[in-house]
Amino acid sequence: MNENGFTQFSTLTVLLLLAAFYGGTYLLTLLIRKDKEDTSGFMVAGHHVGFGMGAASMTATWIWAASFYAAATSGYTYGVSGPIHYGLWGALMILFIYPFGRRFRKLAPNGHTLGELIHARHGASSQMILAISNILGSVISLMVNFTAAGALVSVLSPLSFEAGVLIAGVGVLAYTLTSGFRASVFTDFAQLVALMAIAIIIIPAVLFSAGGPEVMVQGLELMTDEQANLFSMDAILNQGAPFFVAVLAYAIGNQTISQRLFAVRESHIKSTFVTATLGYGAIVIGLGMIGLMALSVGMEPIDGKMNNLIPQMVSTYLSPIFVALFFVLVIGSLSSTADSDLSALSTIMMADVYGKNIARNNPNPKVMMLVGRITMIVATVAGLIFASFSLDILVMLVFVGALWGAIVFPVIVSCYWDRVTNAAFTWSVVVAMALFCIARFELLEMTGATVTVFEVLASVGGAVVIGLMVFGFLGRAAGLVAAALTLIAMLIFATGFLRDYMVLVASLTAYGASAVVCTAMTLISSERFDFDLIKRRVGDYDDAEFDDSGSLVAEGAK
């Protein structure tokens, strides 16, 4: 144990654990290595990812390092409902995107990014808005995961934070560089199996070592009324509602998800994403229970840092062997997300930047592959540098989240409504971002008519979120009815109330403002778009037809 009470491994032990994980992962990728990789295989595995691989990859990618710490923090802060409000809404992000994903695949069956589809629909400016939001999100995610690796290594061993960051970066790049997305998906499957096996062992082990379910029941006496209430309004408004609002934004704005929508066999999209929803929800809610256990036994996080909760609980109640398993669990989760971020970034640069804007739809496949691999190297170096600075990423996350919220409505309606124009798309995002900043940072005095206007826009945003979700599953009429009922309810009950939760108001304003501007500009337009053009404009980049031997079948299994 070190002075903070954490289990302390020797340098040799940690290096052996890291070598075993990254070495084993690298050896796995040798099974699918091809002498000549094609762009389709490198970016979306040739659109031939099956159900099992797809579901495992989606689950592993969505569980990143922050899932561990944020889920436990939610359980510790909000009590019995905290793990649900974190894990459930995160899981629904996966579920609610699949109806729209099927539409994306129908419009662009040979697509690689959502940006390509939007480029075919509207042109370069709309596409670049989407590409920039994807790049920012992936770079931030990469930095967060490398930072988590450095912090974990420095806490559990004599190695420095920078050494942990460097090892994780080099390890992830080594097994992703050659085969790109195919390597990411293939290793995700193995990593998820390990994640589930270890989580199934560690979570019950902590529970019973801490005293079993009886301790959890007795711990209710230590909680506040809000923490002991499964339907806590405090948890709903501060944790559940902001996450619920972000459901569609994260799904639309994150290339790691849309990449898998274009990679999974079209007939397996529904089953893949439903299974991933269940897998993610079960694992993350379980991790959140560790935070609830810490609250129940009256544990105080060391130095007041919530990120210490899980390693503190594991070190306190379990033997060093379990702590080593926990170490592998976290390294596996952050690596699976980091390799997906590298694949996402390389695909954006290959297809959206080089393919569509530099080569003007006439790219050289060899140059394209080079662009993808160089992007991975540059992104890894950038992630390592940013992670070593230990930057406060909150402000960046705020802007990226707002940008994702602002593009949800324009992106989705552009795939269904033939009258939406490029100007409507672009200006709706610009206006929504400006109004978001005013509300989020209270650049105007939020009183009187001003705050009422933002509450009305937020109410429209709430209606947009609910309406789109219902529309995705039940169609246009049901979506419009749901949106109308939500708008009426929010105008009646939320006006004068939402102003106490300005973070939520700002997020909903991004949805509402973009929907109002996009709809208004579209209604005055006389343009009509032929959706069949998208299929003809978004094609494969390889000279030869796709070679099915590039699918995720190990060479030894053929």
Automatic annotation (TrEMBL):
Per the UniProt record, one Pfam family is SSF
- UniProtKB keywords: Cell membrane, Ion transport, Membrane, Sodium, Sodium transport, Symport, Transmembrane, Transmembrane helix, Transport
- PROSITE patterns per the UniProt record, alphabetical: NA_SOLUT_SYMP_3
Q: In its keyword annotation, does this UniProt entry include Transmembrane helix? A: yes
Transmembrane feature ranges: 12-32, 44-64, 84-101, 129-153, 159-177, 189-210, 230-252, 273-297, 317-335, 367-387, 393-417, 424-443, 449-471, 478-498, 504-526
Location within or outside the cell: Cell membrane
Catalysed reaction equations from the record: L-proline(in) + Na(+)(in) = L-proline(out) + Na(+)(out)
What topology does it adopt in the membrane? Multi-pass membrane protein
Q: Which residues form a coiled coil?
A: none
Keyword Zinc-finger in record? no
The entry assigns this protein to a family as follows: Belongs to the sodium:solute symporter (SSF) (TC 2.A.21) family.
Under the heading PANTHER family, the entry gives: SODIUM/PROLINE SYMPORTER-RELATED, SODIUM_PROLINE SYMPORTER
Protein name, as recorded: Sodium:solute symporter family protein
